[in-house]
Amino acid sequence: MRRITRIATVGIASAALALSATACGGKKSSDTSSSPSSSTASAAKSIAIAYDIGGRGDQSFNDAAYAGLQKAEKELGVKGSEAEPTEGEGEADKVQRLTELARKGNNPVIGVGFSYAPAIKKVAPKFPNTTFGIIDDTSVTGPNIANLVFNEEQGSYLAGVAAAKASKTGTVGFIGGVEVPLIKKFEAGFTQGVKDTNPNAKVLSQYLTQPPNFDGFSKPDLGKAAAQGQLDAGADVIYAAAGLAGSGAIEATAGKGKWAIGVDSDQYNQAGLSKYKDHILTSVTKDVSDAVFNEIKSVQDGKPATGEIRYGLDKNGVGLADSNPEYKKMTDLTAAVEKAKADIIAKKITVKTAP
Question: Could you tell me if 170 and 153 are in contact, meaning their C-beta atoms sit under 8 angstroms apart?
């Protein structure tokens, strides 16, 4: 697998485009690329993903996409390339990055995060035989564009149920990386789940930054400070949808012996968070890994999937992780979560997408 360094932007610097809101997280990329042997290069089809804020190693959103790329390399025999974001980059950087990846013959090219929407809108028409995937966006469409989206509010509702059941103080917290519509889906579902479970519960909500400042997805110290404030206010369960910044919230929560709820990946199993794992009650998962793998496979099979491809509870595209043994011991909690999941799938519960 090749990991591509920053591709230089041509022309004058463009006005900064709002970097992606993911639940998730820029750091400067490093060149760890290695050239495959000529025989491998000629035998393997080439695919590429372009990472969101925080890049690979965020223990969350980007790492989930990377897992999908790894799976494709292993099971489909393809050759993968990765492209990292750069701090403070603008739209021109993303256009140049996607253009270069497509010119090199990668197919598909997947943008991790909705900030790639304007760039894909410009680049995709120029490469009609290349499929472009974009995660967490439906605003840009085309015959060769796949919109890989999730019902984050549904998974967050289950997290709200779990938080309300696990809380002893009746006060829980939500931390959003940046106040954008995508992250508001996480807040809305979480708050609804808490209130439906315990109407008397108090939900403390806080966003780390406001657009166009997207540090709230990349700076753990911001998440740590926010969590400390909520802990001081009595919260004993904190759910952070903040990409790399969420690791700071987990650190602070674990340090006080309280429960943290992770996001996007099963953060209980993330090596970078292993010292805090005993205090990660559960995580709201988005099956970004399978979404990436399925898109790659569809292209390799000669039947590229395009248009909106949605992953919800009904397809196990979102959910709650149960890796922590302590979570499984809370039978009242797990029963409530399973009932809520069944009711959402049966459309007995409609989860809000905005607070």
Answer: no
Tell me, what DSSP letter sits at residue 166? H
State how beta strands 132-135 and 237-241 pair: unpaired
**CA dihedral sign, ordered 37, 38, 44, 49:** positive
pTM of structure: 0.85
Contact indicator for 283, 260 with CB cutoff of 8 Å: no
Residues 279 and 108: their CA atoms lie apart, in Å, by 38
308 within 8 A of 155, measured Cβ to Cβ: no
Structure tokens at 103: 């010119």
The sign one gets for the Cα dihedral 218, 320, 148, 131 is positive
- pLDDT tens digits, one per residue of 236-269: 999 999 989 999 999 999 999 999 999 998 999 9
Q: Which of 208, 170, 166, 169 is nearest to 187 (CA)?
A: 208
Q: Are 23 and 182 in contact (CB under 8 A)?
A: yes
Cβ contacts of 193 within 8 Å, gap of 6 or more = 156, 157, 158, 159, 160, 161, 162, 163, 164, 340, 351
Is the omega angle on the peptide bond into residue 128 within 30 degrees of 0, that is, cis? no
As a whole number of Å, the end-to-end CA separation of the chain is 41
Classify residue 19 by its DSSP letter.
P
H/E segment holding residue 73: helix 61-76
SS3 330: coil
- Beta carbons within 8 Å of 199's beta carbon, 6+ residues apart: none
* Cβ atoms of 342 and 349 closer than 8 Å: no
- Report the candidate in 286, 175, 160, 159 with the shortest Cα–Cα distance to residue 220: 175
Does the structure show a pLDDT above 60 at 5? no
Specify which residues 147 forms β-bridges with.
134, 308
Say which DSSP state 279 is in: G
